[in-house]
Amino acid sequence: MSEDPTKDIGQKYDTDPTLDMVVRMLGELRDETRNGFAAMEKRFSVLETGLSIRLDRIESEVKQTHSELFSLRADFTELRSEFNEFRAEVRERLKEPA
Question: Is 19 part of a structural domain of the chain?
Answer without folding.
Answer: yes
